[in-house]
Structures are given as C-alpha cells and as structure tokens.
Amino acid sequence: MEMEVKGREGRRIRSHGFLKMEMESISMIQTRRSFACNHTLYPHLLSINKPTTSTLILQIFLYFNHRLLLNKTPQLIPFSPQRIRHRLHPTTGHRDQGMDVRRRPSLKPAATKGKNLATGVHEFDNEMLKANNKKVVDVSKASDLLPMGISNGVFFTVFFSVVYFLLTRWREKIRNSTPLHVVTMSEMAAITTFVASFIYLLGFFGMSFVQATSFSDDEEEEEEDEIIRKEDTRATPCGAGLDCESDVVVKPVVKDVEMVPVIGTTVVVSEEDEAVIQAVVSGKTPSYSLESKLGDCKRAAFVRRVALERITGKSLDGLPLDGLDYESILGQCCEMPVGYVQIPVGIAGPMLLDGKEFAVPMATTEGCLVASTNRGCKAIYASGGATSILLKDGMTRAPVVRFGTARRAADLKFFLEEPLNFETLASVFNKSSRFGRLQTIRCAIAGKNLYIRFTCSTGDAMGMNMVSKGVQNVLEYLQADFPDMDVIGISGNYCSDKKPAAVNWIEGRGKSVVCEAIIKEEVVKKVLKTNVASLVELNMLKNLTGSAMAGALGGFNAHASNIVSAVYLATGQDPAQNVESSHCITMMEAVNDGKDLHVSVTMPSIEVGTVGGGTQLASQSACLNLLGVKGANKESAGSNARQLAKVVAASVLAGELSLMSAIAAGQLVKSHMKYNRSSKDVTAIKS
Q1: Got the DSSP string for 119-156?
Q2: Strand pairing partners for 591?
Q3: Chain centroid to CA 199: how far?
Q4: Which domain of life does this protein belong to (predicted)?
C-alpha cells in the first residue's frame, strides 16, 4: 500500500504503508504526538471531519502499542488546540512547548527535501529532541519490554471475559426472577477477578491520565493566549514539521462560558462589579456566596442579576431591584435574590368582628376578589357584625420511628399514651422554648412503624421550628428506654404539613376557628341582590352535595382558598400552608321564620403567626400593623396570632357570602367580565 502526500508547491512524497513507516522510522516524539496529530500524518487513516469508528480504534491500538514499547503509560487527551497546548512531557513532567501547535517554530530542515517521508520525520524529531533537551529512548531495546505488553493483553482479555460472563449471568437471573444479590462460587470468583483486573488496568493506564490533565490557572492561560496571538505567524496544523504544507489555518479557540447578548437591557456597571460579574459568569465565584464575599446584600443581588442576564440572554427589566431591604431576607426568607415580585394589595372592609373593626389587607392579582370580599364585609357590618370562636390552638409535628417488631412499636405507643408519663415527656419537650408547651401526643401504627403526632402551643409564632426542636428532645430522651428505636424521619407526614389530610380536617392543626353571622333579609336583598331561600338551596347543592360528589377533603366551600391566600401573602405567612389552612365547611340556614340567613364557616387548621418568617418584612409588617397584630403580644403570648386567625376566618365568611350571592343571582360571569378584564393597552401606558 502506498501513500501519496502532495504539498502546496506540487512536491510528491511516497512511502510504503503507514504501519511500516511507524515501526521503522518514527522517533519517540513522533510516537507521543501520533495520537493527537495523526490526522495530518495519516490522512487516509482518519478524516478530520468524519472519523469512522474502525479507524479511530486502529489509531488507539497503534498509540497504545507504541506507548507499551517505550514503557510509557498512555495519556488519552482528546485532540484540541487547548488540550495539546497544555500537554505535559511524559519524561520530565514539564509543559511540552514542542507540542504547542501555535507557538512551535516552523523548523523545516533541508535534509527533509528530496528524501522519503520517514527519513524527514526522523531527522525533524531529532532536532526537536535536541531543542528541548529530551532523552531519546532507543527503540531497539523495546523488545525487552514485550512481557509488559503480554501481561496487559492478558488482563484486557480477563477483564472483558468476566464482564461478559457477569452480564450473561445477571440477564439470566432477571429472566428467572432470581435475586441479583444471590451469587454462586463461580460468580464470586468472576467478581473478584473483575475487581483485580480493573485495579490493574486503572493503575497502569489511569494514573498518568489524571496527571496529564492538570492544567494551569486561568490567568496563566489568558497570558499565554495573548503571547501566542502576538508571536504566532504560522497558519499550519500539527504536521507543520513536514515538508508538505497545509492550507488549513488553525486559530486558537478559548470558550469558557457562552454568553448570550441581552436584548433591551442597559445597565451601568462599575469596574469592580464587572470583575465580580465575570467571575460569576465563568463559574469561579458561586452565585450563592456573593453576600458573604461582598458584604453588601443589595450589591450581591445586583451582581447576581446582571450575571444571570448575561448567561441566559434574557432581560429582567420588569423585575424591580430597588425598594427592598435585602439585609432583612438574608438567612430567613430567600436565598440568591435577584429582585422581588410586585403584588398589589387591596383593602376589604371595614370588617366588624367581635365588636371591633378591621381593615383586611389582601394581596392578589385576581380581579374582582377584593371587591367581592368587600361586599361581604358590607353585608356583615350592616347586619351587626360577625362572631368568632377559637376552638384549638396547637401546631403539630409527627416523626416516624421503626422497630424490629410490631410488638415493640406497640410498647412505645402505650408508653407515650400513658397519662403518668406525660408530665415527664412534657418537661423534656418544653426545654426547647419558653413558648412551646406540649399539649397532646397521638400515635398510629403501621406494621412495625410508629407515627407519633405531637401537638404544642407556639405563642405568636406559627411554630413549625419550635415544635420540631421539642420533638427532637423527646426522641433523644426515648432512646435511653428504647435503644432499638430507629428514627426514620423527624416528619412522617402524619403532621400533616402543606398537604390536604383527613387528620388535619378531623383533629385540627394550628388554630381551629368557627366564625358566624346572621344576615338580615333586607341586607340579603339590597346588598347581596338575592334571597335567603336561593342561598340556602345553592349552598346545599354546591358546597355540600357537590363537594361530596367530587370526593372533596375539607373543601366544602365556594372559594375559601382565594381569601386565605390573599391575606397570607399580605401578612407574610407561608403561602404553601394555604393547602390545609383552606380546609373549610360553609353552612347556610334560614332563621327567624325563614326571613334571615345564618351563615358560618368552620376552619379547623388555620396556620398563622405574627413573628418570624415573612412577617418581619417591611410591607408585610405594615399589613400586620394595620390589623393591630404586629409582632408578639407581650401581655398575652399568642393572642396576636389567634386574633389574626379569627380575621382570616371572618374574611373567608365575607368572601363566601358574596360569591354565593353572585352565583345565586346569576351575576358571576357579568361581574368578572366587568372587573376581571382590562381593555386598556398596558404597553402604551408604560411607554
């Protein structure tokens, strides 16, 4: 087989087969370079654009063959300008400047001209060796190292043989439904052989690969790139040392992070901030660490925001940055902020509840919601106000523990539910907080697993963290008497938090409140635009029968979650707890000889607090202050949170009354089309 290489000037160089050329004439340097640069030396073996699998495997075989003959561990480095530029010399461990395709001088010995290709290559490589002060290994002595190649071949064969055997055995086990962990003696031997051969091959081929991929710092790379751009006058690829010249121009490509241009964003950035932004974009500085590194939470949010825009190419112009105290949310409300979302706050009321008037703040983007609730407040006020009753006040947490047998789980259940043990457990629980006080312990068993539902008072806080600390104290105390108890999780979903659950609907969680009012006949007609009989019938068929047909769990109401969510957002509550807090059953009944309407809402699990979480933010704190329940009540611990729960229930009562009246009167669609649809051109207004 002959190979013909044609240079730019028309010269032709012939050689007999690349295998013979490799074994007879190529020096150690050319062997080391062959894996990265043989696309130039052997164009018929591997096309630059479309390498085939067979040619690539042949390349790797030749490369490993030469490395074994020279007793050098192969260094598998994919071909790219950046990788070749950083390759280390396998003998000295220093950066191999001779392998830099852009920095290497274009040495073209005259001896190469007129000779065959193999001779020219050999002489060129000898010059490169002298230039770099490298030692030349005598290839004629490589025959002494052939046992190393034989041993590698044996281990390769053994490795793939045991892999094939194990895969075959496991496939048979899967087909026969045999457990995979049940192994025979032959399989154990195969696994042992697999591990041994893998360790051998990893030790022989892997270590140098890891060492060879060590790169210099990014700053050094940038300096090198600048020097290379100034010094490089060639436009030839790896095979420039040959007499054959190439038309291919190799340009350095440095691509750390792809930055997409941001459309429609004009941000003035200082030089100091620009450096930090570049570090975030490149990945040198984690986005989550900006607050601690900069010491300025607002500046950290600005830097994170600009970096995000550059990475994604999306503008955040509509998301405000100024106007929020970022120090107040650090470590409490939100991580890695880039701004805040604006939600309009409306006021419904006055709400006359238990003889007091309240202006109820509601944060919502649903048109007609505040107006509807306000109409309900007007009807209640005109009828003499609403009355509320607090039934329970206790937050819950239910860990799950596991024993070896169901009997042992039952032993702990009996121990926890024994009244004589409650005082001891309560004293252990109450050490966690001066407000947290253990109230009850309820247990449920599932096999050998025990679910323990602790209920405690939490003062003016919503109390999830408070009750969790108390539960942790009790579990540590129980370990002494029940050492075989395995605590699976501090929460076993028997609590149940942020999920609709019958245990909350029946037992209650947080504040359990009932709120009621008697709406006079004339108010029903003039304000609500309907009549008592229609409301009673609609409530029975919609809220009771309809919800039962749907299989509702705590959803026997018209839209309690609408009001709960709006008040929660305005007052800094956990929006996710709207799930169980919206458990509500709405009841309507004709009273006073059928003239007046008795309406009530029963809400067993309203989870609210006036301290902690989002309640300390400026906007939410202002809404709490509007209701007169800001912060903790120093005179009576927990009274502010209880009052907030009553306001939530009264607001739900007003919303239920108004929506049911709109449906009964056939005005629901008309009112929504009037108040929930805008005909204004918002874009034109903004511009």
Answers
A1: HHHHHHHHHHHHHTTPPPP-GGGGGGGHHHHHHHHHHH
A2: 596
A3: 35
A4: Eukaryota
13 beta partners? 5
Cβ atoms 568, 578 nearer than 8 A: yes
SS3 per-residue string spanning 68-119 = HHCCCCCCCCCCCHHHHHCCECCCCCCECHHHCCCCCCCCCCHHHCCCCHHH
Amino acid letter at 564?
V
Pick 243 or 621 by higher pLDDT: 621
Residue 587 backbone dihedrals phi, psi, to 5 degrees: -120, 135
Give dist(CA 516, CA 603) in Å, integer.
Answer: 11
Token pair for 634: 């120093």
Tens of pLDDT, residues 321-359:
999 999 999 988 999 999 999 999 999 999 999 999 999
CA angle (663, 667, 668) in 5-degree steps? 60
Least confident of 94-98, 173-177, 223-227: 94-98
The single-letter code of the amino acid at 134 is: K
Determine the Cα–Cα distance for residues 46 and 409; give it in Å rounded to an integer: 69
User: For 364-372, what is the mean pLDDT?
Assistant: 94
Give the model confidence (pLDDT) of 12-28 as tens digits.
434 444 444 444 444 44
At residue 158, the pLDDT reads 85
Q: Which residues are catalytic?
A: 366, 498, 574, 672
- Please report which helix (H) or strand (E) contains residue 388, including its range: strand 387-397
| Confidence grade of residue 171 (pLDDT, cut at 50, 70, 90) | confident
Q: Which band of pLDDT confidence, cut at 50, 70 and 90, is reported for residue 262? A: low
Quote the crossing angle between the two packed helices 18-25 and 28-41, to the nearest 10°: 160
E-strand spans in 232-373?
A: 345-353, 356-363
Q: What is the DSSP string of 176-218?
A: TT--TT---HHHHHHHHHHHHHHHHHIIIIIHHHHHHT----H
% of residues, the chain, pLDDT over 90:
57
Task: Identify the DSSP state of 542.
Answer: I
What b/e readout covers 477-499, taking b as 16+ CB neighbours within 10 angstroms?
bbeeebeebebeeebbebbbbbe
571, two tokens: 């007052």
Distance CA 535, CA 525 (A): 11
Q: Three-state DSSP class for 225?
A: helix
Query: What confidence tens digit (pLDDT) does each residue in 33-45 have?
Result: 444 444 444 444 4
Could you give the CA distance from residue 605 to residue 581 in angstroms, rounded to a whole number? Answer: 5
- The answer to whether the beta carbons of residues 351 and 637 sit under 8 Å apart is no
Cis check: omega of the bond before 361, within 30 degrees of 0: no
pLDDT of residue 100: 42
Q: What gap in Å lies between CA 308 and CA 220, rounded to an integer?
A: 27
- 23 and 221 in contact (C-beta within 8 Å)? no
- Asked if residues 294 and 270 have their Cβ atoms less than 8 Å apart, the reply is no
CA 86 – CA 212 distance, rounded (Å): 9
Cα torsion at 275, 276, 278, 280 (round to 10°)? Answer: 170
Asked if residue 496 has a cis previous peptide bond (ω within 30° of 0), the answer is: yes
**The model's pTM:** 0.63
Least confident of 142-151, 427-436, 546-555, 606-615: 142-151
Least-confidence region, from 253-267, 548-562, 639-653: 253-267
CB neighbourhood size of 308 (10 A): 18
